Amino acid sequence: MPLGRDYDRQDCAPARALEVLGERWTLLVLRDCFFGVRRFGDLRAHLDIPRAVLADRLATLVDAGVLERRPYAPGRDEYVLTADGLDLWPALFTLARWSDRLRVGPGGGGRRFRHADCPAGGADLTTGGLCPACGTLPPATSLETRSLDPDEDDGSRPERDDAVSRALRHPHRLVTPLP
Amino acid sequence: MPLGRDYDRQDCAPARALEVLGERWTLLVLRDCFFGVRRFGDLRAHLDIPRAVLADRLATLVDAGVLERRPYAPGRDEYVLTADGLDLWPALFTLARWSDRLRVGPGGGGRRFRHADCPAGGADLTTGGLCPACGTLPPATSLETRSLDPDEDDGSRPERDDAVSRALRHPHRLVTPLP
Q1: Which residues in chain A have their CB less than 8 angstroms from residue B88's CB?
Q2: What is chain A's pLDDT, residue by residue, as a tens digit (179 residues)?
Q3: Cα distance from B72 to chain A (closest Cα, Å)?
Q4: CA of A7, closest CA in chain B: separation in Å?
Q5: Which residue on chain A is closest to B4 by alpha carbon?
Q6: Where is A97: in which H helix or E strand?
Q7: Considering only CB atoms, which chain A residues are within 8 Å of B94?
Q8: So what's the pLDDT on residue A133?
Q9: Most buried of A88, A136, B102, B105 (most Cβ within 10 A)?
Q10: How near does any CA of chain B get to the CA of A73, in Å?
Q11: Which of B17, B101, B128 sits opposite A95 (nearest CB)?
Q12: What order do you get walking across the sheet with A172-173 strand by strand?
């Protein structure tokens, strides 16, 4: 029995969200957009993803209102998170943290995300994307990400050397374009 | 070019989480587990899902450490969220709320989730799963869900009449078994 594309007989919101987000590679593309990657070529080099698959995922995210396509030069577009797309940050953060913990245990793995605009001085986000210093759930635009300190790194991640990977070795404000 | 199952060349946690959660139906199964559904027959009747697909998704969730399989009678098992599974609540809530808003606009759609154990009197969860009364991110076990009030319901959801749908017409504490 084929599964209908719209889970017609279900009244469930997660089913509809997954229609957009559940396709392979889509969350990775979205993660890069939160990191500030905006251009097709940068996404492709960083994700090592086939051109046709990336084009398909970007089109789906634009259709869903998650990304907006904007010209930045004649004949060239970039992809920018919309307000609806930015709202997905807590889900993306929670999924990332959760899978990290399953893989390498509590506290291990992954990048750090600090509440840079925190009125209480800032701290690394904890469960669910909460800032433990001010007790709020900061928007992605007020966060800075950094890679693990050398003594925290378990060495399990392959080193990559594309432009996005190199830029992300330095602390970076989320959503703003990478240098 | 086939996509490898493990996104081998990516260091990204969301990719790994999606290996588990991205399969069609999996988030729906998980949502029902948060509602307190534990038995194969109840899941099947509520989700209207083919038997083989449900068995496959439950096995995947058990393998990933999200659900635990427990005997409740000779030869009969039920599926219960593990501690790791319970930690997925903020992501599930955020995805559900997000897709609801895209579909029916701000404030519309979906169920309500109230922080029943709130020291500040409790309120319906807002963005990211925050309780606006006490400012914390409550665990699923301290929440009560209820369907929309009749004047809030936009009538877009089909009425279902299985045992789980009937039980969920009344306020219910998350994670505890449905009556």
Answers
A1: 94-95, 98
A2: 333 434 444 555 666 666 677 677 888 899 999 999 999 999 999 998 999 999 999 998 998 889 999 999 999 999 999 998 998 898 889 888 877 766 655 555 578 999 999 999 999 998 889 999 998 899 999 999 998 766 666 555 566 789 999 999 999 999 999 98
A3: 27
A4: 9
A5: A24
A6: helix A89-104
A7: 87-88, 90-91, 94
A8: 95
A9: A88
A10: 30
A11: B17
A12: A112-115, A143-146, A172-173
ipTM of the complex: 0.74
Percent of residues, chain B, with pLDDT higher than 70: 78
Determine the residue of chain A that is closest to B108 in CA distance: A13
Contact B91, B23 (CB under 8 A): no
Q: What is the pLDDT of residue B64?
A: 84
**Contact of B80 with A31, CB cutoff 8 Å:** no
For residue A43, which residues of chain B lie inside 8 Å, CB to CB?
Answer: none
DSSP reduced 3-state for A160 = coil
List the CATH code of the domain at A13-84.
1.10.10.10
Q: Verify whether the Cβ–Cβ distance B94 to A90 is below 8 Å.
A: yes
Q: Tokens 């029916």 map to which residue?
A: B104
Residues of chain B with CATH 1.10.10.10: 13-84
The minimal CB distance from B16 to the residues A10, A99, A160 is found for A99
All residues of chain A having their beta carbon less than 8 Å from the beta carbon of residue B15 are 27-28, 99
Q: Is 80 exceeded by the pLDDT of residue B95?
A: yes
pLDDT, tens digit (0-9, with 9 covering 90-100), for B128-141: 899 999 988 999 99
Q: Which residues of A touch B65 (CB under 8 A)?
A: 102
